[in-house]
Amino acid sequence: MKKTLISLATFLFCGIVAAQNQTNYENFLNIQFLILDQVQPLTQAERQQMDSIFYAEYAVPEFQDIAFNMAMSKTLTNLDYYKNYYRNALAKRAYIMYNDDLAFYSEKMGLSGASLDSIKPYLKNRSEEIALSEVCLIAFPDDLFAAKEYFREKYRKNISDVYLKTESKGASYNLGLVLQNREKLQLSDAQIDSIVGAAQVIKQLSKDSVITRKKNNRWLYERAYIMKFLNEGQVAEFSNIRSNDYALSYAHKIWQEAKSYKIDFDYDSVKVVKEVFNYQLNKSKINYIYRDEPKKLAEMENFLYKNSYPKILRQLAVERRKRYIEELDDKENLMF
What we know:
By secondary structure, the chain is an all-alpha fold. The chain has helices at 2-37, 44-58, 64-75, 79-85, 87-108, 113-136, 141-166, 173-180, 189-207, 218-229, 232-260, 269-289, 294-308, 311-335. The chain has four domains: 15-85, no CATH class; 87-166, no CATH class; 170-230, no CATH class; 231-336, no CATH class. The chain contains 14 helices and no strands.
């Protein structure tokens, strides 16, 4: 009899708790529906679907707010519902992201106050749109990830245009050259940010007289950053870009010298310029990439010399030596 009474009491208690939970559940939903109705009255179908999803979600994590967000995300597409319902939460979330981004561009990339002021509107809009996507797409992780990437890409050009035009201008020749050729080098956004940040460091080092014309060490610091932030293929391509004008000028100079020695009739001018240009370009690239590895540098230069040293350079070396000996003989004859 005693066991029966205990079982009955337990049953009644559980029934009372269940009824209370159901009441709380219904009261919570009704209040939220009233809030949403102020934006636009929900349809009966929307209410029923949200009720069903909320009940299923609420039964698992037992967090009303998250469960209701999931119900909204799976049911409502009108963004005005989210903007109104999550007004305060969206403002707080966007504010946090905005300040995090601002700190990144200020502290990590060292942008000036003027540049920061110029990109603030873009950072603000971006943070607001990402915050909104987080509540709209909470039920769809893949779509949420894609949306965040979309908004970052949407504002990336506006933001980068500011610091590429203002922060990197005149900062350093080689880093500026990297940024000017960012598409050809296929730089990632992270690499661009890193190079811009490096340009700011070099500016400061110049102000502090660590980098000076007398020491002629600016390019060493530039190279250190380029080697750090670009991959091997990008460094090689950058070296070609960096040395292109010099290599071409050198090749034309060699051809003119060959003409002065009257040995040009043995060669085709286009072929000579191309061969000397390619050789000098590769030599410059080897010197740039392996500057910190003397043994490897010597091996690569030796390999290049043995396999592609232009014939005209060999002949010119002979002609120069002949001319030099002739000039010495002339001087000796004049002395006597």
